[in-house]
Specification:
Length: 569
């Protein structure tokens, strides 16, 4: 019988080659039950991959999943999609009756209009403007009062100055008249004249006065009736003769000058007094005008302080009413349910005419993604026991408490729980081979996206969920299908390998059986490297393409799992 030789392409190639060798070997055994021993199956030393995997079962899930519902419950009036429909972002999915929402919106809008009207009234109040006008007027009056007082003081100062000048002039004239009188009458006669210009004879009586003449009559020129032969008598005589005595004339001039000086002094004193009075009255007028300005300013400050506070308080009420209107408008808008993303409708829980409740509840998200952990596989038992309480997805109610569930069926991921010993080996970025129970001939490549940092108890065993993102897809894949994920936790590629089943280990050494020159197997020692689930790395002792024998136990009995038949040959 012709020996069977198989070629190995990595560990999966070896499995296929081994299966073919077993099938042919069994056929040969069946065909030669009465004949000789069939030849042992063979393989070759080839380049391949040494890999170690950890595997777990999980469920296929869409990469993106959206649970949709109305924020507030009401009666359904439209359901515009069916399960399996493909929808686009913004597409209307369903509507509910918005009558109650619109009535609430109208009420809130009325409240807003009322509060806005009150705010406009406060903002447009003339109180502040009136106070500002009063203050401006008071300031103008103060300025005018100051100008008037300044002008009056200037007039008074001018009058005082003129009076002073007049007094100085008249006083100088009196002094000159006195000098003239002394020259005309002598010092003795001049000393008898009052220095203040008084004409009363009792003011300063003449020291040489003599008794009055018997003829009677007052003294001449009002000089106290002095009619003796002194100067007074001389004046009288001169008067009788029609000539005036120069002394008397000088005295009269002096008296007139003195009276004028006294009058000028009186006018000067009066001007000074009037200036003082006007200054006092001016200060009083200015202070009164200032008080009016202060009062007007106080009124303005009071109005300005009250108005901002009143305005702010009313503005706050307007803002509150506006927020209530926005919320009511949002309720009206939310009575129409739109598709937030593109996807496929995977569940609908409601029909037209039914009352749907407000959306609520949360979904357990898979590690590193927005997709929910599906309640199938190893977690099915615990999920099913709590579905009636939590509203989780179940066979009778897909989507749980959600009204509509959208999935993205163009990309899938596998969410699988690993036992803690295996989970310790799983890391993001590792390659994964995924197979599907419903599609036995389909295997797809994937990558570990993330692994949960905390464990979940499943059937009393701590497991850690991992998310595997498929890098290859297929039209036959559907969300929820059971999948087997094998994570390559260790791998060496493009190295010389031999099947684990062909390796014989004795006394700490490793051998393979190869066909000898006489057809009998011979043992060839080699130095192994990394050992994977299906293959062992060859570091030295064997050459690429060298033929080796597989153990006969593989065809004589039931193949054992995990490297059964080691030590045969």
């Amino acid at each position: 019988m012709i020996p069977i030789r198989t070629s190995m392409r990595g560990h999966r190639g070896f499995k296929m080659a081994l299966a073919m060798s077993l099938a042919l070997g069994l056929s040969a055994v069946a065909a030669g039950c009465g004949g000789g021993t069939p030849p042992a199956p063979t393989s070759r030393v080839e380049r391949g991959m040494v890999a170690t995997k950890v595997s777990a079962s999980g469920a296929l899930a869409a990469v993106t999943s959206q649970n949709l519902a109305f924020p507030k419950g009401a009666q359904l009036t439209e359901v515009n999609v069916k399960v399996g429909d493909r929808v686009q972002p913004g597409q209307v999915l369903a509507k509910e009756d918005d009558f109650a929402f619109r009535q609430t919106l109208n009420q809130q809008q009325s409240q807003l209009d009322q509060q806005q009207a009150l705010l406009d009234k406060i903002s447009g109040s003339p109180q502040v403007k009136g106070a500002e006008a009063s203050l401006d007027q008071a300031k103008k009056i103060l300025d005018a009062t100051k100008e008037n007082v300044d002008e009056q003081i200037k007039l008074d100062e001018n009058a005082v100055d003129r009076a002073r000048k007049q007094l100085d002039f008249d006083q100088h004239a009196a002094d000159m008249a006195r000098k003239a009188m002394i020259e005309a009458c002598g010092k003795k006669a001049a000393s008898e004249m009052p220095e203040d210009g008084s004409t009363d004879p009792s003011t300063k009586p003449s020291k040489s006065a003599k008794p009055s003449a018997p003829s009677g009559g007052g003294g001449l020129l009002g000089l106290g009736g002095d009619s003796g032969f002194g100067s007074g008598g001389s004046n009288a005589l001169n008067g009788m003769t029609g000539q005036q005595d120069p002394c008397e004339k000088a005295k009269q001039a002096y008296l007139e000058a003195q009276r004028q000086a006294i009058a000028s002094k009186t006018a000067f004193e009066k001007a000074k007094h009037q200036k003082d009075v006007d200054e006092t009255q001016g200060r009083i007028s200015i202070e009164r005008a200032k008080q009016e300005v202060v009062s007007a300013q106080n009124q303005l400050d009071l109005a300005e302080n009250d108005k901002p506070a009143d305005t702010d308080a009313q503005a706050a009420l307007v803002a509150s009413a506006r927020a209530a209107v926005a919320l009511a408008q949002k309720d009206v808008d939310n009575a129409v349910l739109y598709a937030p993303v593109a996807g496929t409708v995977s569940a609908i829980n409601g029909a037209v005419g039914e009352f749907v409740g407000a959306g609520g509840g949360t979904s357990a998200k898979a590690p590193g993604t927005n997709a929910a952990i599906p309640g199938v596989g190893a977690a099915a038992t615990s999920d099913a026991s709590s579905s009636s309480v939590t509203g989780a997805p179940s066979a009778t109610r897909p989507g749980g408490g959600a009204f509509i569930v959208l999935n993205d069926v163009n990309s899938f991921q596998v969410v699988v729980p690993f036992e803690e010993s295996d989970a310790a080996k799983v890391k993001p970025g590792q390659k994964v081979q995924v197979s599907f129970d419903a599609i036995p001939d389909l295997t797809r490549e994937g990558t570990v996206l993330s692994i949960a940092p905390s464990g979940t108890a499943i059937s009393g065993v701590t497991n850690y969920y991992a998310t595997v993102l498929l890098t290859q897809t297929d039209d036959r894949l559907k969300s929820g299908q059971t999948a087997e994920a094998g994570v390559l936790v260790n791998s060496l590629e493009n190295v010389l390998v031999v099947p684990n089943a062909a390796v014989v280990r004795q006394g700490g050494r490793s051998f393979v059986n190869a066909p000898g020159p006489d057809g009998k197997p011979i043992q060839i020692p080699f130095q192994p490297g990394a050992v994977g689930d299906d293959t062992t790395q060859v570091l030295s002792g064997l050459r690429e393409g060298q033929e080796i024998l597989l153990p006969q136990a593989q065809v004589q009995g039931t193949p054992s799992q995990g490297g059964g038949g080691r030590g045969g040959g």
